[in-house]
Amino acid sequence: MAATTVTYDSDPVRRAGNLWEIHGTIEVDTAATAYAILNNKHHIVAANLSVEDSPSSAFGSLRLGLNKAADFSTSTPGSIAVDADATLGTVRFSVQYA
């Protein structure tokens, strides 16, 4: 998969009130990338990332921006910006949004 690919594991699930959650995977390499998880009418309030399938030589840190473009400064509702210092491969995400 390409580094901008978003794959969903399930349909959105209501958590409480107007808070929803969705799960899936993204492909992460060393380029700062914005992933459009939702459309721009939703605001992500929390995200959790965990490395699922990584090259054996990959070890590094991950930077995450909620509702941000790849430059980490431009507001982009419904997106997460991810930057890593190693190609991490498949990363599982869980996003809560309103």
Walk me through what this model shows.
With 98 residues, this protein is mainly β. The protein has one domain (6-97): Immunoglobulin-like (Sandwich). Helices cover 0% and strands 58% of the residues. It is built from no helices and eight strands. A hairpin with a 6-residue loop joins strand 6 (62-68) and strand 7. The radius of gyration is 13 Å and the shape is globular. It starts with 5 loop residues before the first strand and ends with a strand.
* Main sheet specs: 5 strands, antiparallel
Rounded mean pLDDT score: 88
CATH class: Mainly Beta
Sequence of secondary-structure elements:
EEEEEEEE
| Anisotropy-based shape | globular
Q: Give me the CATH architecture, please.
A: Sandwich
Q: Percent of residues in helical segments?
A: under 10%
Oligomer: single chain
Contiguous runs where pLDDT drops below 50 for at least 5 residues: none
Counting helices, strands and paired strands, the structural category is mainly beta
Strand content: over 45%
The CATH topology, please? Immunoglobulin-like
How many structural domains are formed by the residues? 1
What would a concise description of this structure say?
With 98 residues, the chain is mostly beta strands.
